[in-house]
Amino acid sequence: MTSAVPPPRTEAPSESQEQRSSRRSIAAALLLGAVGAALALLASRQDWAHGTASVAGGSLPLTAKGSDVTGVPAALAIVGLAALVAVFAVRRTGRVLVSLLLVLSGAGTVAAALLGADDSGALDEKAATASGDAAATIGGLSHTGWPYAAAAAGVLLLLAGLLALTYGRGWPAMSGRYERDGSPAPRKTRRAPDPERPEELWKALDRGEDPTRET
User: Fold this and answer.
1) Nearest CA to 126 among 56, 69, 73?
2) Sign of the C-alpha dihedral, residues 75, 76, 81, 84?
3) What is the pLDDT of residue 194?
4) How close are the terminal C-alpha atoms of the chain, in Å?
5) Nearest 5°: CA angle at 201, between 195 and 202?
6) What is the pLDDT of residues 126-163, one digit of tens each?
7) Cα–Cα separations (whole angstroms), residue 42 to 18, 39, 69, 143, 176
8) Parallel, antiparallel or unpaired: strands 58-65 and 139-143
9) What kind and span of H or E run contains 50?
10) Which of 1-5, 92-96, 176-180, 206-210 has the lowest mean pLDDT?
């Protein structure tokens, strides 16, 4: 006897607060890290300082880019971006170490950018080369805001690293051998060959067997 009452619907389990927090932290870390690395690389290619050098009784305008002042922000931006990707490729202690590398990359970018914000060494070298006088220095020195943009990029990388340190233990890892719960993926079972298929009949004939004989 069948019942007229329909069976109760089974609703899919709702996402837990921990899962939502983990998902948001991943998105924030990826966004902060990517924007920070891109901004640091962009700032390193911009003009950080301007000045003039005295050459043959005249003045020659000179410009120093961020890469002329220091190559640290660009290098650490690449290291930080690689560390951000590597966070998802490692587990446990490896993830903590990679997260620390991301934090240090951000902190190093901030320090290098701030130290280069009022640096005149790169322009002094250009002035000495242009004038032919090793003791020549730059005049009319002025700085742009790009060193502080590089420092802000370092802060973004630093925040991404702190997020990875705080929430990284709950983030998924890139692996094709394991499911989301960490257990090995079940192997696919092979079906037994069907003796009635034409290709199986031909294989039996090749082996000298009678495929019409009942076993």
Assistant:
1) 69
2) positive
3) 57
4) 43
5) 145
6) 878 777 776 667 777 888 999 999 999 999 999 999 99
7) 36, 5, 14, 17, 35
8) unpaired
9) strand 47-55
10) 176-180
